[in-house]
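We modelled the chain as a single entity of 122 amino acids. Its sequence is:
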Amino acid sequence: MNELTITLDHPDAAFTPGGRIAGKVEWRLAAAPDAMELRLVWYTEGKGTQDAEIVQTMRYDHPIAADSHTFELTAPVGPHSFSGTLISLLWALELVTDSEDHATRQPIVIAPAGKEIELHSA
């Protein structure tokens, strides 16, 4: 059984730029990986080419097969989470083994007032 979880201190998973993103990562794997990595990423969904960027990482070298760690990151000033007719920009935390065989994703919002910006066509 391989299980990876990300639990946020802020239950609505919405953050303002420059705000504190904190929580706990946990994993239970059949074998200990060489490393685990927590990533703060943004990515686009919708029409056209998908873009993505890893903005921050926390690396856990030589972890045991089952472990947990608290974390704290700072939400970047941008880009802001938005949802439009053709494209959306989304943020997430990803917990990934070094081999990328196992991963989990926790969607979050980073935007002013901690609310996704909704773009509407005129």
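As a brief sanity check on the tokenised model: DSSP finds no helices and ten strands in the chain. The chain has a mean pLDDT of 95.
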